[in-house]
Amino acid sequence: MAVAWAWGVKFPHLTVVLSMVGGCAGIDTGGALPTTGADAAVTAPDDFDLEMMQIATRYKSFSKIDNTAYASSLGVGNINLYVWGDSKDYKLVSPETTGSGITMVVGSVIVREVLDSSGAVDKLTLMAKGPAGYDPTLGDWWFGVLDASGTPAVTDGRIQLGRLGDCHSCHIPRETDDYLFGVPQADQHH
Q1: Nearest to 54 by CA among 109, 105, 101
Q2: Residues 14 and 126: beta-carbon distance below 8 Å
Q3: Which residue from 47, 42, 54 is spatially nearest to 159, judged by alpha carbons?
Q4: Cβ-count burial of 132 within 10 angstroms (0-12 exposed, 13-18 middle, 19+ buried)?
Q5: Residue extents of the structural domains in the chain
Q6: Are 155 and 162 in contact (CB under 8 A)?
Q7: What number of other Cβ atoms are within 10 A of residue 26's Cβ?
Q8: Does the domain spanning 45-187 belong to CATH 3.50.70?
Q9: What would the mean pLDDT of 155-177 be, rounded to a whole number?
Q10: I want to staple 128 with a disulfide (CB 3.0 to 4.6 A). Which of 61, 103, 123, 142 is the partner?
Q11: % of residues, the chain, pLDDT over 70
Q12: For residue 33, how many C-alpha atoms fall within 13 Å in the half-sphere facing its CB?
C-alpha cells in the first residue's frame, strides 16, 4: 500500500509543495522526476529542513536589511535580504570587509529574494543557523534554494536543502564573519 502525503507552505507569493509517494520523497513535478523505484534521486527533506522552511514562510515580517534591492555579488540579479534573529549583529557584516567576529544565534534565518530584471522574485535562497554540531565545517549553517514557484530546486538529482557543497565553497572564506557576506554598507537599511 502506497503512503502519500503532501506538505505545503504558503509564502506571500509562493507555495512550496513537497510530496512523498510510496516512501520515496520528491518534488511534485507532475511526473517530471521519478519519486519511486530505483530511479528516485530526490530525497525527502528532514525535520530540520521542514522546520526552517516553515519559519522562512514569514520572511516578509523579518527585518529587511537593505534599503532597496542591491546588485548581487554573484552577478545573478538584484537582492532583497531579510533576517530573523539578531539583525543588529547581521548588519555588522558586509562584503567589503572581513573580521566582524559576530556569531549569529541558533535559529537565525536569512532569506534572500533574488530578483529578475523586471524586479520579480526569481528564486529564494535561505540560510538558517542550526544547533551546535549540525555542520561544524561551516558554523552549523543550513542552506536552501527555492525556485520562483516556491519549490526546492533540484541539482544533479539532489534537492537543494541542507548541507550544500556549492554554498560551502563560497562561504568558507568568510569564517571570521560567521560565514556570512552581509549587505554592502551603502545598501543597508539604517
Answers
A1: 109
A2: no
A3: 42
A4: exposed
A5: 45-187
A6: no
A7: 21
A8: yes
A9: 84
A10: 142
A11: 75
A12: 22
Q: Got the DSSP string for 69-109?
A: -EE-TTSS-EEEEEEES-HHHHTT--TT-------PPTT-E
State pTM to two decimals: 0.77
The three cell numbers locating residue 92? 555588522
Measured CA to CA, the distance from residue 43 to residue 34 in angstroms comes to: 11
Look-up: residue for cell 573580521?
99
* CB atoms near residue 15 (< 10 Å): 12
Across residues 21-49, what is the average pLDDT?
46
pLDDT surpasses 70 at 7: no
CA distance 128 to 133: 14
Structure letter (DSSP) for residue 135: -
Under DSSP, is residue 166 helix (H, G, I), strand (E, B) or coil?
A: helix
49-84 pLDDT, tens digit per residue, is 888 888 888 899 999 999 999 888 776 789 999 999
pLDDT of residue 89: 92
The rounded distance, in Å, linking the Cα atoms of 174 and 161 is 21
User: What is d(CA 64, CA 72) in angstroms, rounded to the nearest whole number?
Assistant: 16
The rounded distance, in Å, linking the Cα atoms of 165 and 169 is: 6
Question: What residues are paired with 7 via a beta bridge?
Answer: 18
Residue 183, pLDDT above cutoff 80: yes
